[in-house]
């Protein structure tokens, strides 16, 4: 996978996610080595520091360990819930926008009901200050 320029996540997070998918796949097993930094640099076209940050994420999750002179070794497969069924950042953004739209609509409706119950017009500034 190449990096997605439209993905709002930093490159290291996208790389970590791609490596996580590789580890979860049948293409690599516990005990196998991940590609070297030089190979990752060719694949992703990013600086070594960016790649190290991606590998740090995987180490922090307990998926890999790194040994000087030996490389990065897979020690655990990711949890099943972190698979391909997880929504993408773009899908999450769309869901949040839909939720926000619904909440805005509900807020307007509640304000109208409160105004009706208090006998004020919804645009009456007193209705907001009296409610507090």
TrEMBL record:
| CDD domains documented for this protein | WHTH_GntR (cd07377)
Q: According to its UniProt record, what is one Pfam family this protein matches?
A: GntR
- List where Basic and acidic residues composition bias occurs: 117-132
Keyword line:
DNA-binding, Transcription, Transcription regulation
Q: Which GO terms describe its molecular function?
A: DNA binding; DNA-binding transcription factor activity
What biological-process GO terms show up in the record? negative regulation of DNA-templated transcription
On the tree of life, the source organism's domain of life is Bacteria
Q: Which residues form the HTH gntR-type domain?
A: 9-77
In residue numbers, the region (Disordered) covers 113-132
Question: What's the name of the protein?
Answer: HTH gntR-type domain-containing protein
Q: What is the lineage of its organism?
A: Bacteria, Bacillati, Actinomycetota, Actinomycetes, Pseudonocardiales
């Amino acid at each position: 996978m190449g990096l997605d320029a439209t993905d709002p996540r930093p490159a290291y997070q996208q790389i970590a996610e791609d490596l996580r998918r590789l580890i979860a796949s049948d293409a690599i097993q516990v005990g196998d080595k991940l590609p070297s930094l030089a190979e990752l640099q060719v694949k992703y076209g990013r600086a070594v520091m960016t790649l190290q940050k991606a590998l740090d994420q995987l180490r922090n999750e307990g998926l890999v360990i790194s040994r000087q002179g030996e490389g990065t070794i897979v020690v655990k497969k990711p949890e099943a819930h972190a698979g391909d069924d997880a929504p993408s950042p773009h899908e999450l953004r769309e869901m949040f926008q839909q939720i926000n739209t619904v909440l805005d609509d509900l807020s307007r409706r509640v304000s109208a009901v409160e105004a009706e119950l208090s006998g004020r017009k919804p645009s009456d500034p007193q209705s907001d200050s009296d409610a507090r």
